[in-house]
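User: Can you write out an input/output pair for a complex, sequences first and structure second?

Assistant: Here is one pair. Inputs:
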Amino acid sequence: MSGAAILELASVSKRFEGLVANSEVSFSVAEGEILGLIGPNGAGKSTLFSLIAGALVPTAGTIRFAGADITALPAPERCRQGIGRTFQVPRSFDSMSVLENVMVGSFVRSSSSSAARAKAAAVLEFVGLAPRAASFAGALTPPEKRRLEVARALATEPKLLLLDEVLAGLTPAEARAGVDLVRAIRARGITVVMVEHVMEIVMPLVDRAVVLDIGRVLAVGSPAEVVRNEAVIAAYLGERHRAA
Amino acid sequence: MPHGEAATAESFRSARVRRFLVAALVFAALALSPLAIRSVYLQNVLVLTLLYAAVSQSWNILGGYCGQISLGHGLYFGIGAYATSVLFVTWGILPWGGMIVGGVLAVAVALLIGYPCFRLQGHYFAIATLVIAQSGLVLMQNWDFVGAARGIQWPFGPDSWWTLQFARAKTPYIEVSLALLVASWLATVLIGESRWGYWWRAVKDDALAAESLGVEVFRSKMAAAGVSAFFTAVGGGVYAAFLAYIDPDAVMSFRFSLLFALPAVLGGIGTPWGPLVGAAVLVPLGEFSRSYLGGSGSGLDLVIYGALVMAVALARPQGLLSLVPRRRAAP
């Protein structure tokens, strides 16, 4: 399962004016793995996501994807190279149908509309949104919008998929369906990096977890190792709990 | 409801056939309309309606599909009108050629404007286009080679399709305006079905999400601006031939920039039929109010337009076309 590193971050930092969102973040993601990026609110998870996807440029450090330095590449180029992402707050194209939303993604690999349409329909089938293909994206329920985000990103045929809190705010049944979807995506050979802050959902799903706190890497390891880590317990539960 | 790849492709094909059939019927009816509408006054209104519909359709490509609201399309219209007039009057180049030259010039200008301005967000882009178009107007008012504020009079000659000059007949101008409307409609629909069309709408709805899906946002805007400017300038050339006399205020005042945006907004922005529906309401309304309430230049027609657009914006923000019940959302 753990093949060569598909994504490597080396001392990646991001500052906004005086605020340090990420500081000296280094870790790597193996091909085919599901990696969880966890941490309390404000830990810098979403910023780090944007740095990997190219929506933001790091202040320092390098990001390598499939062996090549992509630190300076703009977002559309990273998408072409095989990095797909979803947004924490769904950003659907609301004037378009669900199918058309996904077609925007599939146009990255095929310039013909009929090929893009066929692929979008297949992706909708895969994520379970096919019955909603003709609806306007704005009419979807919040869990459906999350699925649409995933479908759009999958249509770009990514090697690495970045999922930003796709399981947050779902009912237990919806969350279980979401977990199954993430497993099905990995079964297709796609490496997954997912941000979540609900530990109970992510821990059984991920192969490894990276814990961020105040923009720094607190711990890296298997879920079992991470939940026993002293620093992680302190960050999540506070100093007093550890002392007790 | 059946779904899956085959059903999706099938429902798309049948919707597409329906759309082109409706278009063929509408355009055929318009082409034959001079047979029923004999009054020269009404034929005149029809020419203007079709011409504004065509240019508003061109505006719609950039403003409606790609979401970049331009308040300066009068500039491209003026470039087309002036290129056509100067080439014909000075060098005897037929207006058909002049329109194409004007179109190409307008594309070049649109790309020059777009290069810095497409980095601006939201209203700043609209304001920039307005200011640039007004500067162009002042430039033309003072440029002696093109007649400055005196304008350019087309020479009198026999009626001819070559020179697109007809002393009395309006029907040729109806057909030429309609041809331009058909061309801009086809461009809108055909490009709209292609990757560019999807990119434009993605840019309009959410540029950040679009970029994450591989959409080249800047290039999309530039392409939309180019196509939009081309058809707008050709429309300016047709208008110049129709008037046979142009001056800066007659072809490129702010009024035009506004009147190219309004029909699309009124009829349904970002839809293939919105501009025609909007122009069919606005242009006759403006012409009738001018002839019955007296005097052009009073700006009364603009007051009426403004009231109408406000009413639509409040009651039906998606435009008049949204009153037509839809079978279902297009897949």
